[in-house]
Amino acid sequence: MNVFVTGATGFVGTEIVQQLRQSGHSVRVLVRSLNSSSSRLLASTYGAELHRGNVLDAVTLKGGLGGIDALIHLVGIISELGENTFEKVHTLGTENMVKASCDAGVKRFVLMSALGVRPSAVARYHRSKWAAEEIVRSSGLDFTIFRPSIIYGRGDHFVNLFARMSRWSPVLPVMGSGQGTLQPIRVEDVARCFVGSLHEPLAIGQTYDLCGPDVLTMPVILKTICEVIGRKRGQVRIPLALARGQVALLELIFPAFLRKASPLTRDQLIMLEEKTIGNCDPAKALFGIAPPHFRDGIAEYL
Ligand SMILES: NC(=O)c1ccc[n+]([C@@H]2O[C@H](COP(=O)([O-])OP(=O)(O)OC[C@H]3O[C@@H](n4cnc5c(N)ncnc54)[C@H](OP(=O)(O)O)[C@@H]3O)[C@@H](O)[C@H]2O)c1
Fold first, then answer.
1. Best substitution site from 19, 32, 130 to test ligand 1's pocket, by max atoms within 8 Å of Cβ?
2. Most buried residue, 170, 177, 249, 260, by CB count within 10 Å?
3. What are 148's strand-pairing partners?
């Protein structure tokens, strides 16, 4: 198949492109810069064809989907910066990709969503992804939607952050109550479901949770990371009200002075307090994945 991938330069996208190529698919990717190191890596290592564009700008998508059989739409952000708001990147971005697919006659559309999305969600990340799902569901396209919990693997933004922090800090922070739960899933398993869905008629019109076998709180996740890398570190609880204040400050400082998205947001704090439990059984049965326990999975690369 000829597959078009958005968000291919990211952590999950690179793994999906790699698996697409291993499965014999041809890949064209949407990139914002043709010269970034990640774009060049996709072209040189995986033979991906680059199409320069931005999901926020429908004009730049024109002509990119000629000859394409299926589209995997991964673009997403966890922290806002300038015009890159959740509503724009997730909702308008998906609307633009769906329209580009319909215009180009690309029927198969696979969407990256997230565990916990729902219309009544408090977090805007979740609400904007729900709106994106609704656009895809009502598009008339042959869609599949995946909703992963937090994804880990070589190059992730989550486990690696705390592993790095543990090098210099004697304690690791637990923001809020520490009672919210996550079901971390390995990036290779997520990619396998995306790639597998392309040839799976049963996946059309379906939405799948993707999560690992463990339901873990942040204190347990941090303890596990430290145990796997063999460092003894304490944990310090930062009460929610104080954490909100600190994060609000980061959200001001990072965009204004560093022109970067804040490393932690109030939206993330909301999500960290939630206890959404996903059911990965349908995805495991259809795509043949067997996600490992978190401890074993992170030991593969830490
Ligand atoms: N990682 C997780 O734990 C997790 C869990 C659940 C769901 N997800 C979802 O999975 C998707 C991928 O996550 P990730 O961790 O791989 O994120 P990532 O590493 O930050 O990658 C994000 C990708 O989106 C691209 N992008 C952002 N804004 C864009 C725009 N306006 N136009 C075109 N491309 C744009 C980035 O391109 P540049 O290289 O140009 O920046 C990059 O390729 C996201 O939708 C995320 O919400 C992730």
1. 32
2. 177
3. 210
d(CA 159, CA 153): 8
Atom of ligand 1 nearest to the CA of 7: 43
pTM of the model: 0.97
- Contacts of range 81-84, beta carbons closer than 8 Å, 24 or more positions apart: 81/255, 81/259, 81/260, 81/261, 82/255, 83/56, 84/56, 84/261
Q: Specify the pairing of strand 181-182 against strand 216-217.
A: antiparallel
Q: Where are the domains of the chain?
A: 2-148+187-210+277-291
CB 208 within 8 A of CB 144: yes
119-155 residue pLDDT tens: 999 999 999 999 999 999 999 999 999 999 999 999 9
The CB density around residue 46, as the number of other CB atoms within 10 Å, is 17
How many CA atoms lie within 13 Å of 76's alpha carbon, on the beta-carbon side? 22
- Percentage above 70 pLDDT, the chain: 100
The structural architecture, per CATH, of the domain 2-148+187-210+277-291 is 3-Layer(aba) Sandwich (3.40)
